[in-house]
Design goal:
- This protein is mainly α.
- The protein has helices spanning 2-17, 25-36, 45-57, 74-82.
- Helix 2 (25-36) packs antiparallel against helix 3.
Length: 106
Amino acid sequence: MQINLLNDFIKAYENTYSVSFDDSFKGCIQELCKELNEPFMHASYALENELKELVFSLDKNVNIAIIGQFSSGKSSLLNLILGCDCLPTGVVPVTFKPTFLRYAKE
């Protein structure tokens, strides 16, 4: 009976505290939140709320506008930042309409 109780406690502890996170900034913040939930940490309620809001805000998309006159190097700048020739470049306007880039793992 006591062994079952101990096994149940271990499983409950692992489910609560043994969560794996990625190495990204968001994962590091989530790991910090998990550590602050330890009973001996005595983290303030305000700090925990701020960190939770930060994690929530990291899930939101960020829109950045690049504007300028034609042939002023906007596409070249973005290609340089991205490290690839994703956008066409040339002497005549080639991306004269609004162009949207989105992140994808593939």
